[in-house]
Amino acid sequence: HVQLVESGGGSVQAGGSLRLSCATSPLPTSRYCLAWFRQAPGKEREWVSSINTSEETDYADSVAGRFTASRDNAKNTLYLQMNNLKSDDTALYYCVLNLSYWGQGTQVTVS
Asked: Does the pLDDT of residue 27 top 90, yes or no?
């Protein structure tokens, strides 16, 4: 069955950086649109970023200019580089394949 496993979350001070990874199997990332969502405590889940099969990326206004999505199709892995983190970025971050398959999430805490 399809598995998406996120990693790279953690605790960081405001202004710091983190890089999230999402390894997928067995579906090849090269054939699908990939996305990152997040959910903060007491808030609805929100879309963060997408990257399509043409490597075009899109970002929520709240993270544009600070976050960068990329992928390594040879490793079937999606990344999210997060810079200049803010307390509002604190959330559980999920990677999503084709808007159909979700990972279990990785926690990001910014203090």
From this structure: no
Alpha carbon 34 to chain centroid distance? 9
Residues 6+ apart with CB under 8 A from 71: 29, 34, 51, 55, 77, 78, 79
Q: In what order do the strands lie in the sheet with 67-72?
A: 3-7, 18-25, 77-82, 67-72
Quick check: 28 pLDDT over 90?
no
Which two three-digit tokens encode residue 15?
A: 């202004």
Residue 29 has pLDDT above 90, yes or no: no
Q: How far apart are the first and last CA of the chain?
A: 37
Element at 80 (helix H, strand E)? strand 77-82
Separation CA 51–CA 44 (nearest Å):
22
